[in-house]
Write the structure tokens for this entry.
Amino acid sequence: MSVPGPDLIYGVAGLGMFGLGLHHAMTAAAPLRRVLALKICAIGASFLLIVAAWRVAPGAIDAVPHALVITGIVVMVSAMAVALALIRRIRALQDGEDTQPGHTQAGDTQPGHTRNREGRQ
Amino acid sequence: MSGIDPMLPFDVALALALVALSWAVLAAADRFAMVVLFIVLGLMVALAWVRLGAPDVALAEAAIGAGVTGALLLATLRHLRGPEAAPAPGPVRWSVAALVAGVTVALGAVVVAVATAPRPEGLAGPVRDNLPASGVEHAVTAVLLNFRAHDTLMEVVVLLIAVIVVWAVDRGLAAAHDPAAGPEADGLGPVQAGYARLALPAAVVLGIYLLWAGAHAPGGAFQAGAVLSAVGIMAVLAGRWRPEAHHRAWARAVFGLGAAVFVLVALGVGLGPGVAYEYPPHLAKPLILAIEAAVTLSIAATLAALFFGREPAPVSRSRGRRP
């Protein structure tokens, strides 16, 4: 093969996204940044599946990896929604704005614990 | 491959843009810029998947991965103020970078091997051979709703679990942050209302079309559900409709509808002549369309509810519990 096809080009791009996402997911401290890094890592992994399903002839493209990636996209948005809800709630607890601080938190006896600025998003 | 593909410069430029945008998202100093760049990245990814012959995945990524996810991120941004936590210290970053580089290079060898070697046919042949018995003419829909229906049922259940968890977790948020509080609270005005009047009917038609088209062309329940969820989000943001506490019972019923219809059809087929999920060919198309219609409604309601976050009720029963 003298000229790289779309599979090789986008395969390398997906690989780059996977590596970038994985690196930031492991090193970023801000939760929102970490969640986005995981999503980019997941997109990179999806690229590998779609590239593996690609064929030069349009009729020979494998539909099963496509269905798997669609499933992955829907599962990812579910996981993302839960992660974002946790980020919102943690932030509300840190800011002392939560309406249900819970039983073990005892925010009124240890205000410094819930208002700890070090763990901020 | 003989000759040079005229799309080659486009592919190279798009691939470079994908990596550059990913880097820009992760390096953006401002959270709002980060989210906007991420939405742009999602649309570019959809474009790349069209180039790789995966229009269904491209539709799902544009509607769910970029659209709904972007809306979720923007709704969360309003809760986040102030400086971010600093990233991990240098030595940790460098050792992680070395680890990630190793994993990526190993995967890269696999990618190059896959892209340059002659390909095995994979599952394309079996899917093509069994397509006439699946009840639909579009391979991806046949895989999702028939050949691998159990996976898809589990996916619908994951969405259901997500909305249960989000409603439980968001219960502690103050009502002031509620994006469903209506246009007055959000400062939205007549522009949104006018846009909604024009766009909502078109989006409803588009969603139903995507659902119907899934039987023979790219489209299907997930893409249609995402478009219809955008209708719900827009209707609330424009003040056309407001979720109230007494809607919760209906909302719960719609969240569970897709999984319930899916399970009932599987059980009905399993108790009758065949095995669960093996629809009889002459009934396959109506059964698949019934499942898809129910799943579309559930996905639309669930994704919209995930955007609103907090369930539509003032949670006051625990407020008086503590002094």
In short: Chain B has a mean pLDDT of 84.
